């Protein structure tokens, strides 16, 4: 790793603190079971392309076993427990996750490529907090939905992406169990390790067999889970393209569906904002986690009067960003999750240049091994440009200017997506004015990428439907009778 501004000594977190097994089986009915097909796939460390482990590849037969185990656990054990008893298990899981936080953070970084600072300070603490938060609701569902009659749905099929592997698992598993459902979860194929570690935690917590089942594999495994007739709910987080396939597969079935999909979120900077603070926030909003954030502020709209100054400050700031080994505590931008994702990002860099936008990248040197991308700014971007319309899911920021509030609202809302947005201004009335006009599930003001288990999260338009987090996250796992 090199950076022309700083010359810090490496400060590596030791990978020796985690034990990754050479091979992982499927976690079904409280036991580790070999996949019916006998097939395994490799998971690699995107920071250096080294092999980490072999992972079982589940097919429809394994999915059937997992769903049967979840059904039996639902009918015979979990649905018979009181909310307080379910809560005790969730608290136990949360505490065990906290105890193993360092191990989980290192594993997440090794498997996914995100900087250890983020896994350690954001992903894992937030995942633990989700379990604590929903553990607290388990015996208070009557208070959460006072005067309403409801019951658990039954078996939830849950499918997660690779950008926040354990956190997305927590967003799904914690509310499902708190409400009395059992689950079959399929993690993303490039980042299965922390879900498998979570299965070990469930065993250690004494969770009854079959309440949580973890089935690993690729898209075909996820599709088999979606297609299974004995699944009552599908909760999916991932790309809009796959979300649409899932929606089609569930039409005409009684399955309840929530979809958390892609984004192309607008970050709006007004001329009265504290500019240095905003520049730092913009850097965080898009370059955090290599831009692998569904709600990343990937489209920046700067008021014309300050555009030149802001672009100069962004370029200056990018010169001091550390790109490199994600296990190094100095690293700001780690590895891109997979070769495939790096190729997608590089394809969009070429598209941006072909569309006539001006590209800026800092002078840092990337490691020779592994999947890395320099943080990239595009200026002179047309509203219709593909780089401004399509989700890149990498450390790439497009910058456009505007003069009036009407213009920026129109430009920001001119997107198929509507996941999140940011507004930077010192004027409170403008915060309320803009946030009420932006078509986005979340609008942050003078900050970005702030998450809390008590806050609902979800999209408008092609960013999906349904909400996770907060009380809303509970209702996604309940059937209301009145
Ligand atoms: P993806 O859609 O390729 O895969 C997501 C998951 O779905 C993986 O586990 C994958 O194996 C599985 N899958 C693939 N094809 C499937 C099929 N036909 N049926 C069932 N399951 C299938 O997405 P990804 O590349 O892993 O994640 C990145 C995407 O996720 C981005 O678009 C990002 O914006 C989105 N995302 C959204 C949110 C949100 O809360 N809205 C959060 C995180 C990520």
Explain this structure to me?
With about 475 residues, the protein is of the alpha/beta class. It folds into 2 domains: about 25-260 and about 465-480, Aldehyde Dehydrogenase, Chain A, domain 1; about 265-455, 3-Layer(aba) Sandwich (Aldehyde Dehydrogenase, Chain A, domain 2), CATH 3.40.309. About 40% of the residues lie in helices and about 20% in strands. The protein contains 16 helices and 22 strands. The protein has helices spanning about 60-75, 85-100, 100-110, 115-135, 140-145, 165-180, 195-205, 220-225, 240-250, 275-285, 305-320, 340-355, 385-390, 405-415, 430-435, 470-475; strands spanning about 25, 25-30, 30-35, 40-45, 50-55, 150, 155-160, 180-185, 210-215, 235, 255-260, 265-270, 300-305, 360, 375-380, 395-400, 415-420, 420-425, 440-445, 460, 465, 480. It has a 7-stranded mixed beta sheet with strand order 14-15-16-13-12-18-19, sandwiched between helices. A 6-stranded mixed beta sheet has the order 9-8-7-10-11-21, with helices on both faces. Strand 18, helix 15 and strand 19 form a beta-alpha-beta unit. It is globular, with a radius of gyration of 22 Å. It binds nicotinamide-adenine-dinucleotide (NAD). Nicotinamide-adenine-dinucleotide binds near residues 159, 162, 222 and 223.
């Amino acid at each position: 790793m090199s950076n022309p501004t700083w010359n810090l000594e490496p400060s590596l977190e030791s990978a020796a603190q985690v034990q990754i097994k050479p091979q992982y089986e499927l976690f079904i009915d409280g036991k580790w079971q070999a996949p019916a097909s006998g097939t395994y796939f490799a998971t690699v460390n995107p920071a250096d392309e080294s092999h980490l482990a072999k992972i079982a590849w589940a097919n429809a037969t394994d999915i059937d076993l997992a769903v049967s185990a979840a059904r039996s656990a639902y009918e015979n054990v979990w649905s018979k427990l009181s909310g307080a008893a379910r809560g005790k298990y969730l608290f136990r899981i949360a505490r065990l996750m906290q105890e193993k936080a360092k191990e989980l953070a290192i594993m997440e970084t090794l498997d996914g490529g995100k900087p250890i600072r983020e896994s350690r300070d954001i992903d894992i603490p937030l995942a633990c907090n989700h379990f604590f938060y929903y553990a607290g609701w388990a015996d208070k569902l009557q208070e959460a939905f006072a005067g309403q009659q409801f019951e658990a749905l039954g078996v939830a099929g849950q499918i997660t992406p690779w950008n926040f592997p354990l956190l997305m698992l927590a967003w799904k598993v914690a509310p499902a169990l708190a409400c009395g459902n059992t689950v079959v979860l399929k993690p993303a194929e490039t980042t299965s390790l922390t879900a498998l570690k979570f299965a070990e935690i469930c065993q250690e917590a004494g969770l009854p067999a079959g309440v949580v089942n973890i089935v690993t594999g690729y898209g075909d495994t996820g599709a088999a889970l979606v297609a299974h007739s004995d699944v009552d709910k599908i909760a999916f987080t991932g790309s809009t393209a796959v979300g649409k396939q899932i929606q089609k597969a569930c039409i005409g079935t009684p399955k309840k569906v929530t979809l958390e999909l892609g984004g192309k979120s607008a970050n709006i900077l007004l001329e009265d904002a504290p500019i240095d603070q905003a520049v730092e926030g913009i850097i965080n909003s898009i370059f955090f986690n290599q831009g692998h954030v569904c709600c990343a502020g990937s489209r920046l709209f700067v008021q014309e009067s300050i555009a030149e100054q802001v672009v100069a400050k962004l370029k200056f700031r990018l010169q001091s960003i550390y790109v490199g080994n994600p296990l190094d505590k100095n690293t700001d931008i780690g590895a891109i999750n997979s070769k495939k994702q790096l190729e997608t990002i590089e394809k969009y860099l070429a598209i941006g240049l072909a569309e006539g936008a001006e590209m800026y990248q800092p002078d840092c040197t990337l490691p020779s091994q592994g999947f890395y991308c320099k943080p990239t700014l595009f200026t002179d971007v047309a509203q219709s440009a593909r780089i401004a319309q399509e989700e890149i899911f990498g450390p790439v920021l497009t910058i456009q200017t505007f003069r009036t509030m009407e213009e920026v609202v129109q430009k920001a809302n001119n997107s198929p997506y509507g996941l999140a947005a940011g507004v930077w201004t010192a004027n409170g009335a403008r915060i309320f004015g803009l946030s009420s006009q932006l078509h986005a599930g979340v609008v942050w003001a003078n900050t970005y990428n702030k998450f809390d288990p008590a806050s609902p999260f979800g999209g408008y338009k092609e960013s999906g439907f349904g909400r996770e987090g907060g009380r809303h996250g509970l209702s996604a796992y309940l059937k209301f009778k009145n």
